[in-house]
Amino acid sequence: MNRRGGRAGLLACGAAMAASLALAGCGPTPPSSRSASSAPADSQEAVDRLRSLPYAGAAPFADREGDGVVQADERRSCPGYNLYSIHERCRAELVDARGKLVRAWQLQPSSSWSNVVLLPNGDLLVVGWDASELADQGIADDKRYVARFDWNGKLLWKQMMPAHHDIELQPDGRLLTLTFRRRLIPAMDRSIPVRDDQLTLLDSRGRPERSLSFFDALSPAPEIFPIHRVNPGRAAGPPWTDLFHGNSIQWMRRPDLARRSPLYAESNVLVCFRHQDRIAIIDWATSKVVWAWGWGIVSAPHDAQVLDDGHILLFDNGIARHWSRALEMDPLTGAIVWEYRAANPRDFFSVSRGAAQRLPNGNTLLTDSDHGSAFEVTPAGEVVWRYNCPDRNEHGYRETIVRMKRYPPEFVDRLLAGSG
Description:
Layout: E1 2-4, H1 5-12, H2 18-24, H3 44-52, E2 58-59, E3 68-72, E4 81-86, E5 91-95, E6 101-106, E7 112-118, E8 124-129, E9 144-149, E10 155-160, E11 163-169, E12 175-183, E13 194-202, E14 208-213, H4 214-218, E15 246-251, H5 255-260, E16 268-273, E17 278-283, E18 288-293, E19 302-306, E20 312-316, E21 325-329, E22 336-340, E23 355-358, E24 364-368, E25 373-377, E26 383-388, E27 398-399, E28 401-407, H6 409-418
Antiparallel strand pairs: 1-22, 2-27, 3-26, 4-5, 4-28, 5-6, 7-8, 8-9, 9-10, 11-12, 12-13, 13-14, 15-16, 16-17, 17-18, 19-20, 20-21, 21-22, 23-24, 24-25, 25-26
């Protein structure tokens, strides 16, 4: 099911959307008037339990389709090469439209990789973590790292820091990533520490230069971003509260959009917060939040990004309603202008991770992480390409795809030609 343009707004408020209206309401609501009671089906306690579960590296789903590219409409699919990371293999693969492997990167010994990014010169940025010596410790803070590889798979550097989820290259060669620090925030809890996520700017060698606390940026502006309380988790070690769970970042460096609205100012950073059910824009220059959206509309979202026209595309996991979707919204009006969900919504549901990428031909590439799958849909919602991760764990379960991203043929062909 999908909606685009004006028809989206009409249908979103029509009878065909009756079930989801109980979840989201019709149109945006000022943040100050939203409450947890406007969130959907499951109780908040049940949702928090889902949120606190550790991300799985593989899941026991029925395999009905086979491995690699299992569907391809070459006429309607957007051409390109597909980069994805395999969570527990600490491996990234670049495959062509038919699923043929053309490049791979790997680091051993290590434990897990999160998002990976292919740079213009062919280098690969990685956010990952090493195994802890204590099995019940989970991901130890001092085992996390960011790393950079060259096109041929050589490790250029690896910097240990409490990084997680996402990283991106800046025009001057520096890097922006997500990090965190544990801190006691009495306003949240007097005895249990909070994992306070941060934006951290690194130099070109991955060494931290400056960090910006999300709590410090968001808490002074409850009229924009009222912070929703999150129950402490005990997945491993002593309890702590994963208050924000930021999972994607994008620096707005588009002068054309900045001339349209200060919302797109070139000092602004778009961030997605899984545990706050929101996306937000934070001004790096002033350390203040300037805009937020999503409470009562999305549930545990991932991978928000600004499109060329200024709209924002994101993956809405929907853990409170038990089905996922991708949606495109206009931040200047708050309107949802396009949406994809499966014909039977519960056929498409990823509790963790997930990604959406708008492609040059208008199609959208979606990552169904929990099922180790990615697929491409047209604006009308027709699936024209599908890929299933061929790697399995020791139990025979398909390995998780963290995020798949498609790169233009000419971009990768140039790198392949240059490698001799």
